[in-house]
Design goal:
The chain is about 20% helix and about 35% strand. By secondary structure, it is of the alpha/beta class. The relative contact order is 0.10.
Length: about 190
């Protein structure tokens, strides 16, 4: 074996040792703990609206969900009536883009709307960018203070006012959405 082949063999051997040294080592597996069966609770506790899914059936849970500590999607599962103003606030994202969805409907496994709901309040102020009302009706006036307000197969039974021209310019409404009152700059 020539000197050149010997050096090549040592270089390959050294490379194999370096790669093997850099390989991720698996942690030893701990023995499984014995299964512990907890007794069944006497009563099921009410879910906490802040820590559970964004499915709401109460006005108070809806107000929490649309707030800055809420969720990006709020799905209403029945008609709701509120005596106070709704403030949609906070910045949320979906697929790395600002987004907020108020889903006022139920759907089947094929995403076909099976039920539409109405949320009633004297006023809704929208401060979250790219907020959409979808599939149902909001009865009251909407005051938009953010870009990208959008109606998707939804209705505002009232007026929609925009705080700035840029908010009005970024407003979109898909068919068969509608606003029963005025849509204007305020």
């Amino acid at each position: 074996m020539g000197r050149r082949n010997f050096l090549l063999l040592i270089a390959i051997f050294s490379l194999v040792l370096i790669v093997a040294g850099c390989a991720k080592k698996e942690a030893p597996v701990a023995p499984a703990a014995p299964a512990v069966v907890a007794p069944a609770p006497a009563a099921v506790a009410e879910p906490d609206a802040i820590t559970t899914a964004s499915i709401v059936d109460k006005a108070s849970d809806f107000l929490s969900a649309v707030g800055p500590d809420g969720t990006w999607i709020i799905a209403v599962v029945q008609d709701l009536s509120l005596d106070s103003e709704i403030v949609v606030d906070g910045q949320f994202t979906q697929n790395d883009k600002p987004y907020r969805k108020l889903a006022f409907y139920a759907q089947d496994a094929n995403r076909k709307i099976t039920e539409r709901y109405t949320v009633i309040a004297p006023r809704m102020t929208v401060r979250s960018q790219n907020t959409r009302i979808q599939g149902g009706t909001f009865r009251g006036d909407v005051y938009v203070e953010a870009n990208g307000f959008h109606l998707v197969d939804g209705t505002v039974d009232g007026n929609v006012y925009f705080l700035k021209q840029e908010y009005l310019d970024s407003f979109t409404m898909d068919e068969p959405s509608s606003v029963t009152g005025v849509t204007e700059l305020r």
